[in-house]
Amino acid sequence: MTSVNQIDLLERVRQLEEENARLQVLLHIAQSLQEELELDKLLLKMMEEVAHILHADRCTVFLLDEEKNELWSIVAMGLKKGQQIRFPANKGIAGYVAQTGEVLNIPDAYKDPRFNPEIDKKTGYRTRCMLTMPLRNKMHDIIGVFQVLNKKDGPFTREDEELLDAISQIAATAIENAQLYEDQVKSFNSFIETLSTTLDARDYITAGHSRRVTLYTLALSDALGLDEDTREELRYAALLHDIGKLGIPESVLFKAGKLTDEEYALIKSHPQITREILNKIYFHKKLRNVPEIAATHHERVDGKGYPDGLKNGEIPFGGRMLCLADVFDALTSRRQYRDREPLEKVWQLIEKDSGTAFDPKCVEAFKMIPAGRIIEIMEQDRAQDLIEEEIEKLYAVPLEKILEWKTNGASNLSPEDRELLELFDKYYERRY
Amino acid sequence: MTSVNQIDLLERVRQLEEENARLQVLLHIAQSLQEELELDKLLLKMMEEVAHILHADRCTVFLLDEEKNELWSIVAMGLKKGQQIRFPANKGIAGYVAQTGEVLNIPDAYKDPRFNPEIDKKTGYRTRCMLTMPLRNKMHDIIGVFQVLNKKDGPFTREDEELLDAISQIAATAIENAQLYEDQVKSFNSFIETLSTTLDARDYITAGHSRRVTLYTLALSDALGLDEDTREELRYAALLHDIGKLGIPESVLFKAGKLTDEEYALIKSHPQITREILNKIYFHKKLRNVPEIAATHHERVDGKGYPDGLKNGEIPFGGRMLCLADVFDALTSRRQYRDREPLEKVWQLIEKDSGTAFDPKCVEAFKMIPAGRIIEIMEQDRAQDLIEEEIEKLYAVPLEKILEWKTNGASNLSPEDRELLELFDKYYERRY
Questions:
Q1: Residues facing residue B106 across a β-bridge
Q2: How far is the alpha carbon of B259 from chain A, nearest alpha carbon, in Å?
Q3: CA distance A73 to A75
Q4: Strand arrangement, sheet containing A142-151
Q5: What's the pLDDT at A79?
Q6: pLDDT band (50, 70, 90) for residue B76
Q7: Best exposed site among A331, A379, B78, B306 by fewest CB in 10 Å?
Q8: Which of the four pLDDT bands, split at 50, 70 and 90, describes residue A203?
Q9: DSSP label at B12?
Q10: What's this model's pTM, rounded to 2 decimal places?
Q11: Per the CB < 8 Å rule, is B31 touching A169?
Q12: Per-residue pLDDT tens over the stretch B27-55
């Protein structure tokens, strides 16, 4: 009797330990997934965790894009941002599972007629066993598919299926949260971008201006090696720097002739109006400086700018960056009756004002921006006409080199350098 | 030997079962909290779950508001939205824990000098034992405090402390996610509201217009009993219905004299420009109809409206609601050289157009809006001067009654009704 009892107890201990391990895994993954609200990062983390937990070689999460009726997934490419792959929502094993809601545990993929060996062929990977399971949300709608490949020690078991099923419930909620968050970020961004473009479009002189200033500012922030949070802050400040112009009558703002003193004073009030408008908007802690950066884009380091006549360090660094990007765009924009000023002349004007209007650190860093990137920004209204390979070549040359070549004269250049300079001029002068 | 072994095994089973129960609780709460991304609802759920898990009478989550250096909490009041209580971040037991990061397990609150019996006095509640623990995020910063009151079977144990500690880690992440989401929603909302107000403020005739139209539309949607998602959609559409005016030169838009045919045609293009602008904005699935609703606010049910001459059911119902709210605000707005039109006259004009310009369902429902609410919206630029008790009285009367009384003449009214009518007129005619 005692020994039977003991065997029962041992069995009970074994069961409890197993259940314990299972619960620990689920709790771990729930906490781990909960920590990531950005969709791309969440998916990558999810795939890594699940492959590890199921002792599998790979795991992919495919999400259902209802509007396009496609499944898509993110691929870690050693890049900062993941790349997407997409295919029709009824294709392959994943498509089958997304359509039917069945769980497929396939011990040998090549023996299953639904398996599409195309991807293996392309990638050189060899799929053996696969476990594919629908991802369902709270409402039991299928929102995607989990696909786990090549378990290290043989085919997937019934226990693996149960574990993955429990994980997929947790994963589905985490994905839906991340999607809700992303939707909200997307709405905010698209609204600001649309508004910024619409405001600029009121006048042909400013059409595309805020967008270009934003891109120059971001290029400058890359040259300066600024971090991601600062980039975001600069992006919003740049897109919105001229929003204060909404407070100035168009009859003054777009006046063709000479402005009276009163009118000029009115125009000069726009950064202050920008500040007032942006101060009414709720910005997240990380974006707290957006109003000040945007409001100081006409300040000068020598204190002779407006609206507040701030000096050097009194001007937020972002405001000093914006100031340069703003002037650079103004000087290189095409107007109705004239072409772009020659780059040498533009840069002379900027260097002359380095240390008075502009922070020299910004001027120096601006010269480090790849010439290809400058052209892409400058010519973005004709983006479709740029020849990719040519722009790529120009990406290898910083703006500084172009300026140097122009100063030294083309005759002293190597054939390669001359070719690059001609390429730059072709786009700069719009001969394409 | 055997029996000792058996005792060990029994003890092992007991431990494992206990650990299992603990893990199950944690997994349950992780999944449950993960499901709620709205901060208010999340906090209420969290407090309920934790009180239940710890067999306690109550649980409160206090969050730290760093900017104001306050702790705040939400109180379920049987209301849809929770109410907040706030106090300085160093006050009471919760404040002590928020400052020091200590865990306080107090068996008898009234014997602890840090306990503030004020709240008990006010509420009639009797605090006995309390367990108070800091909520820390991933970076180990204190973001708030968990406070659990009155365990049903005696004081809180060491095990309760450990369990609450594990829960608080999960809770902190859930709270931070909800805060991130809420921040994003707040940013989007404040941006749209600020923009809408700024656009209207360009001209004294339209100052405050979009905001009032939004409030009338929401009042109308309450009268019609529409759901929360539809309300949200209507809110955005109403705030943005005139954004297309950005595409029309101010010289035409604000022209004082008579418009030429071309100018009039230009003005009439503004709902189409609204559509084009809003179509560029990414709206969440639930808000998908915002552009169409906003773009149809000048359509008429008889098909004689613009820009598309849509008829009856071709016009989204939201567009028909906006149309009425828009005209009602125009007719009841004060202009520089004249007072508000008498309400009888305003309503005659609207009834005359019911079935041609307006959907009769909207006209009928509009009359059900409480008169107090109408006054609040109409007079919102003087909100601080409204006398609360008077407005409350007017909340008991639908607009329909006021119209009826005005038609029948004041002499036939009971003294109470006459008083209400006079109250309404006082605000309507701005004699206050």
A1: B130
A2: 18
A3: 7
A4: A83-88, A70-75, A56-65, A142-151, A130-136, A104-106
A5: 42
A6: low
A7: B78
A8: confident
A9: H
A10: 0.89
A11: yes
A12: 999 999 999 999 999 999 999 999 999 99
A117: enclosing H helix or E strand: none
> Which one-letter amino acid corresponds to residue A404?
E
Superfamily of segment(s) A2-180: GAF domain (3.30.450.40)
Residues in chain A: 432
A9: CB partners within 8 A, 6+ apart: B6, B9, B10, B13
Single-letter amino acid code for the residue at B91: K
Note the pLDDT tens digit of each residue in B379-393: 999 999 999 999 999
pLDDT digits (tens, 9 = 90+) for B13-31: 999 999 999 999 999 999 9
What angle is formed at CA B347 by the lines to CA B346 and CA B348, rounded to 5 degrees? 95
CB B238 within 8 A of CB B213: yes
Portions of chain B given CATH number 3.30.450.40 = 2-177
Return the CA Rg of chain A: 29
Task: Look at the alpha carbons of A402, A407, A411, A412 in this order and tell me if their dihedral is positive or negative.
Answer: negative
Output the CA–CA distances (angstroms, integers) from residue A398 to A205, A374, A386, A432, in the order listed: 28, 9, 18, 22
Average pLDDT, chain B: 92
Torsion angle of alpha carbons A400, A402, A406, A408, nearest 10°? Answer: 60
What is the C-alpha to C-alpha distance for residues B377 and B375, in angstroms, rounded to an integer?
Answer: 5
Alpha-helical regions (H) of B115-157 = 118-123
The end-to-end CA distance of chain B, in Å, is 95
CB proximity B6 to A under 8 Å: yes
Q: Transcribe B183-203 into DSSP letters.
A: HHHHHHHHHHHHHHHHHHTTS
For β-strands B104-106 and B130-136, DSSP reports them as: antiparallel
What residue in B sits closest to A283 (Cα-Cα)?
Answer: B187
Cα–Cα distance for residue pair A236/A278, rounded to 1 Å: 10
- Placement of tokens 């010289």 in the chain: B251
- Asked if the C-beta of B100 comes within 8 angstroms of chain A's C-beta atoms, the answer is no
Residues on chain B touching A171 (C-beta within 8 angstroms): none
Instruction: Flag if A31 and B31 touch (Cβ within 8 Å).
Output: no
CATH 1.10.3210.10 residue spans of chain B:
182-428
Predicted confidence at residue A7, as pLDDT, reads: 85
Alpha carbons A296 and A298: distance in angstroms, whole number? 5
Q: Is A14 on the interface with B (CB under 8 A)?
A: no
What does CATH list as the number for B2-177? 3.30.450.40
SS3 B294: helix
- Tell whether the torsion through CA atoms of B216, B219, B220 and B226 is positive or negative: positive
DSSP A308: S
Chain B residues near residue A13 by CB distance under 8 angstroms: 9, 12-13, 16
DSSP three-state, residue A83: strand
> Residue B85: phi, psi to the nearest 5?
-115, 145
Q: Look-up: residue for tokens 């022209």?
A: B255
What rounded mean pLDDT belongs to chain A? 92
The rounded distance, in Å, linking the Cα atoms of B65 and A62 is 39
Q: What is the mean pLDDT of residues B204-225?
A: 95
Given B17, B138, B181, which is nearest A180 (Cβ)? Answer: B181
Where are the CATH 3.30.450.40 domain residues in chain A? 2-180
Among 3.40.50.620, 3.40.920.10, 3.10.580.10, 1.10.3210.10, what is the CATH number of A182-428?
Answer: 1.10.3210.10
